[in-house]
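Postdoc handover notes: sequence design on the structure in folder B. Input tokens:
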């Protein structure tokens, strides 16, 4: 069934676990993600990113997401990830995404607030929750690291003025593949500061290859949602290297299986099963 992420992330925040956010880029990856959720009997966030629209446009993503999400045996959040265009985000709100992210983090602080507030008001009128980003989670593909740690006072002001439902913060992760082989150093002190004073669930982007110990600690200290994409895409890619297949269907089956296994690993790392250990969580319908 398709659900909102509102109560799910609030429970994660209070109980010290994280909900996995897995990006899909075709039907095979969407099936693998849902299969992992059903196997582990936990909700997940099934996400399509605007940057993938040249390969899978928003209508194709909506069709796939609504089909697999609504037929799943566990609750699924259908999320629009990194929506850079307000028009695209509003279209997603109107046509079936149960959660959206408006990403104006590269704009000035004031412009980010204006754009985010507009989307929040639009989404809330239609029962859709909104995620936004402050600070900036850079990419390891940049010539220089463009990440900027999220400032505590700025985060407080941003949430107050926008009424956003969840906030992406920057504490040292990066989008894409890390240039070095070492596990990144995360600023857990900054995370703890933000968790104490920001009243909405905090989100971590760039979860791929950030280290299981790091990610579990982040979830325990206040990260309620972790985004994973690059590791999953690479897992599917590795399946096809150095091996021959009898058919494309056999290849796709192994790719789907590899995605499911990695998803299941991350579900364990994030301790998502804590959802059903919460005394406040009495039924799936409460989500």
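Designed sequence:
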């Amino acid at each position: 069934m398709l659900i909102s992420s509102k109560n799910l992330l609030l429970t994660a925040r209070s109980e010290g676990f994280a909900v996995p956010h897995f990006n899909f880029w075709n039907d095979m990856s969407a099936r693998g993600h849902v299969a992992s959720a059903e196997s582990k009997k936990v909700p997940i966030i099934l996400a399509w990113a605007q940057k993938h629209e040249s390969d899978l446009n928003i209508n194709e993503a909506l069709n796939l997401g609504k089909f697999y999400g609504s037929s799943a045996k566990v609750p699924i959040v259908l999320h629009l990830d990194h929506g850079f265009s307000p028009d695209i985000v509003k279209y997603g709100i109107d046509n079936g995404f149960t959660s959206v992210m408006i990403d104006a983090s590269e704009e000035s602080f004031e412009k980010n607030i204006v754009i985010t507030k507009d989307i929040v008001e639009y989404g809330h009128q239609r029962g859709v929750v909104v995620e936004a980003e402050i600070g900036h989670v850079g990419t390891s593909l940049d010539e220089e690291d463009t990440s900027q740690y999220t400032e505590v006072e700025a985060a407080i002001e941003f949430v107050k003025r926008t009424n956003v439902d969840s906030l992406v913060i920057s504490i040292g992760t990066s989008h894409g593949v890390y240039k070095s082989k070492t596990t990144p150093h995360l600023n857990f002190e900054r995370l703890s500061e933000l968790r104490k004073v920001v009243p909405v669930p905090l989100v971590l982007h760039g979860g791929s290859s950030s280290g299981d110990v790091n990610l579990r600690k982040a979830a325990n200290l206040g990260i309620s949602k972790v985004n994973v994409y690059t590791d999953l895409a690479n897992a599917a890619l590795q399946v096809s290297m150095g091996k021959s297949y009898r058919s494309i269907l056999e290849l796709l089956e192994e790719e789907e299986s590899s995605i499911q296994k990695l998803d299941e690993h991350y579900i364990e790392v994030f301790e998502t099963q804590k959802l059903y250990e919460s005394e406040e969580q009495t039924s799936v319908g409460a989500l």
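Context for whoever picks this up: The longest helix spans residues 248-270. Don't rerun without checking with the PI first.
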